[in-house]
Structure formats: structure tokens, C-alpha cells
Amino acid sequence: MPESESPAVDSASSPTFADRLIGRVRDLGHPLCVGLDPHLAPIPPLFAQGTMATDDEQTAEGVEAFLMAVLDRIAGRVPIVKPQIAFFEQLGWRGMQVLDRVCRRASEEGILVLLDAKRGDIGSTAEGYAAAYLTQDAAMPVDAITLNPYLGFDTIEPFARVAKEAGRGLFVLVKTSNPGSGDLQDREINGDPLFGLVADGLRRFETDLAGNQTPWSSLGVVCGATWPDQARRVREALPNALFLVPGYGAQGGSASAALQGFVPGPKGREGGIVNSSRGILFPKAAEGPTDAKTWDAALDNALDQAITELGNATQS
Fold first, then answer.
1. Which among 267, 269, 230, 262 has a CA at the least distance from the CA of 244?
2. pLDDT, the chain, mean
3. CA distances (Å), 269 to each of 33, 235, 239, in order?
4. Beta pairing, strands 112-119 & 188-189
5. How far apart, in whole angstroms, are the C-alpha atoms of residue 177 and residue 232?
6. Within 16-91, where are the H helices?
7. Cβ contacts of residue 124 below 8 Å, gap of 6+?
8. Where does the pLDDT of residue 6 fall: very low under 50, low under 70, confident under 90, or very high at 90 and above?
9. Do residues 163 and 195 touch, judged by C-beta distance below 8 A?
10. Each residue's pLDDT tens digit, 207-235
11. What is the distance between the alpha carbons of residues 177 and 201, in angstroms, rounded to a whole number?
């Protein structure tokens, strides 16, 4: 049975999402999360179907073939994947079917699934989103989801309630990796940056989603590798929250910068996951027409490099 469809969490001793994730990170020796962002243009001709335009019904088949091949290469080597829902939504209902099959296949391979959907809405709407992805009987079950908190902390509550009941995880946007994040997130209010106030306001959820077998909470935060100083501020506010660190690799963040919010653990620095999307999915050695053997080697080499860099950084 895939983990996303596991029995309800009834016991205080049952592993939470955070317990499962940290356990896998420790076992594998690195915190790499592979982002499944299937940009259409760079998908190799080896997998392409039809025109690969968003309105071509064959495009979804090409995307699925590509991502299933990626899962075959990374199975047993990474603890978690992060599909970005936008790349599937752009293909309409066919794309959403592909997303569902990709998530289920990852779970079957023992890989946790974090859906990057950045949901955030009020009342019954938030409950609907939570029911869609996080409940035990969700139509499209995943292990965790990203959330946008800027409608207020009450919009997090329905997700937190379901996450606690079902053993799922949440990753809330706090300090994102994009260059324009400072337009709002760094604005000072009574001498404190807004992202810091968001981190402070998430403490009650961190406590409520505390792990049963590790110190870590299933309340996570998004904190970009391009802002190591800000990551330290967030860690001070949320000592037990998991970090989801975008910005590593193709976006310019180094492995050491990506781990600024991590802390010493039994097998090295730990405390979250570091995402790489384009750096793994679209290595330069796989650009243009290639055969299957060449593509396999190119992706394996990109994966090896990221695993080595992050693994070494956890030991420094």
C-alpha cells in the first residue's frame, strides 16, 4: 500500500510525516528533494509526443513518459519528490491525471510526495483543498503540501487539523528564493521583517504537529538557499520546523548555503530538504537528441553530483 494511502494515525507513537522524512534522510545520508517541474521545451525528444504544445492531447503522454523515467532513475536514492502542480494544470484534465499517476507511482517506489501547490484560502475553501490532497480518503493523496500564509494564520488551521489527523506535512512560505521576495517579505514592521513575523506566528502549528519519534515537526517552512542569513532568523523562531530549501543548484544557491538552517543530528546536519529541479531533470549532457543510455547516464551523473554535494555539506 502506498504511504499516501496508509491507515489513519491513531497512536501517539505512530510516525508522523516528519518522522518518516527525517528517517529517510538519515538512512540515505542527504536531504535532496527532486523537483518534478516538467517544463515542456527542454523535455528530450526521446520522450516527446506530438507537438508538445499545451493544447496537444499527446503532450501529457510525453510528460508522463518523461517523469516515469525520472522516477525509475531516482527510486531508492532520494527521500522525497516535489511535483509542481502548475506544469500539470497547464495540460488540463489530462495533465491532472498524469500528476495523480506520478504521485502514486512515487509512493509505490517508497518516495514521499510533497505537492507544490501553494494553497491558501479561507474557511471551507481551505477545508476543500485539504480534503483533496491530505485526508486519508483524498482523491489525489500526497504526503505534504505547500501553503501560502498571507491571507492569515486562520487559513493554515484546516490544513494543520487534517495533517495531524492523517499524518501529513505542511510547508508554509516564509522567505522564498525569488529575487522579488524582499518586496513584501523583508518589509519591516516595528523593526522586524515580515517574514520573521510569519515565522513567529507559526510556532503554535509547529508545536501541534510535533513528531512522535524525532524532534522534528510536520510543520515545515519554505526558506530559500539564496538567503542564508534570513534562514538563521527563521530557525531561531522555529527550532523544530522542517525547512524546504529552494534555490539550490540552477538558481545559484550553494550546498553550504542551503544548509544554513539545518542543525546537528545523529548522522550529520539535518532539519529539512533541499530542492533541485532543473539541475536534475535537465542536465546539459542530456540536451538535444539522445539515446536512452546517454540520457540515463546524464541524469545519473547530475543526481550523483547533487547527492555528493549535499551529503558532504551535512558532514561539514
1. 262
2. 93
3. 16, 13, 13
4. unpaired
5. 15
6. 17-28, 59-74, 86-89
7. none
8. very low
9. no
10. 999 999 999 999 999 998 778 888 889 99
11. 20
Cell of 101: 499517476
Residues of the chain above pLDDT 70, percent: 95
Q: Which amino acid is at 250?
A: A
Task: Specify whether the CB–CB gap between 307 and 279 falls below 8 A.
Answer: no
Q: Are 70 and 281 in contact (CB under 8 A)?
A: yes
Sole residue written with cell 542530456: 286
Q: Which residue has the cell 534522510?
A: 25
Q: How far apart are the first and last CA of the chain?
A: 37
Catalytic-labelled residue, pool 118, 164, 175, 284: 118
- Contact present, 206 and 219 (Cβ < 8 Å): yes
Phi-psi region of 195 (alpha: psi -120 to 50; beta: other; left: phi over 0): alpha
Residue 244, amino acid: L
How many angstroms separate the CA atoms of 210 and 18, rounded? Answer: 8
3-state secondary structure of 261: coil
**Cα Rg of the chain (Å, integer):** 19
Query: Could you give the angle at which helices 59-74 and 292-315 cross, rounded to 10 degrees?
Result: 50
Task: Return the amino acid letter for 163.
Answer: A
The answer to whether 118 is a known catalytic residue is yes
Contact assessment for residue 33 and residue 273, using Cβ atoms and an 8 Å cutoff: yes
Q: Phi-psi category of 276—alpha, beta or left, where left has phi over 0 and alpha has psi -120 to 50?
A: beta
